Amino acid sequence: MLPVLFELGPITVYSYGVLLASAYLLALYYSVRRARRFGLDANRVLDLGIYIIISALVGAKLLLLIVDFDDFRRQPAELWTLVRSGGVFYGGLVLAFFVALWYVRKHRLPIWPVADAVAPSIALGHVVGRFGCLLAGCCYGKPTSLPWGITFTDPFAASNVGTPLHVALHPTQMYDAGTEFLILVLLLSTERFWRRHAGWTFWFYILLYGISRFVIEFFRGDPRGASMGFSTSQWIAMALVPLSLVMLFVLSRKGSAPVAAAQAAAPPARRKKHGR
Questions:
Q1: Residue 139 Rama label (left phi>0; alpha psi -120 to 50; beta)
Q2: Backbone phi, then psi, for 264, in 5-degree steps?
């Protein structure tokens, strides 16, 4: 665990912030590469990625504010922690989805081919981001006696995000990173089998992540809101998993190839400008 990478005088560089920024940049780069392969306007997808990054940050923090609203109301000074925290992933995913939907409609981009191009990038960025959680000590697990339990010792993590120290915990950050990596591999290795069904890659990602997140939440030990025995993320997963199954069924009834549809629907590529 290394919540602080280094300090330069009054400037403190946090590992979580560095890895979160790296995750977003890597996901953005990979999205643009996939957009070109799908025959999409890469410049538009690049702009879309920036909108997604901003809305994901805002949405994740908003959901954290909602989940911990009582705590923030009792201790208004703790609102400052929203600036440092990454928030709740599902909050960012949901808001980013609606912002992306607005953007692709505004610029007349094909919705499902764009979603298919971006989905594996979300998984890739999430893998990197969870390593930031591990170094920062957030999103920690419940105590465990299993041999792969991880023990945190940095007092800064305890004061910053409440990480329990000197006790073996489930490495839920690595559970999430590992499952996201497996999901990424599965998406890329099976993508060719449903080329004719635009949107399948995206909704298959939503399905797989929803199932994995629902299970991993049982091993989480950090406070993150709960109702009737289930966390906020589990309730969202319980809504998204059946929705993704319905969407996979609906999209399987359609036979438009994503690349062909993208090339037909996408407007002419904009000329590149120097300094863009």
A1: left
A2: -75, -40
Helix (H/G/I), strand (E/B), else coil: 119: helix
168 sits in which H/E element:
strand 168-169
Q: Tell me how far apart the terminal alpha carbons of the chain are, to the nearest angstrom.
A: 38
| CB neighbours of residue 226 within 10 Å | 14
Residue 51 and residue 196: Cα distance in Å, rounded? 28
Contact 43, 91 (CB under 8 A): no
State pLDDT tens for residues 24-71: 999 999 999 999 998 999 999 999 999 999 999 899 888 888 887 777
Q: What is the pTM of this model?
A: 0.84
Q: What's the chain's length in residues?
A: 276
Burial class (CB in 10 A: 0-12, 13-18, 19+), 274: exposed
For 210-265, write each residue's pLDDT tens digit. Answer: 999 999 999 999 987 778 889 989 999 999 999 999 999 999 887 554 444 444 44
The SS3 call for residue 152 is coil
In order of 147, 184, 252, the CA distances from 99 in angstroms are: 43, 23, 25
The 3-state DSSP class for residue 142 equals coil
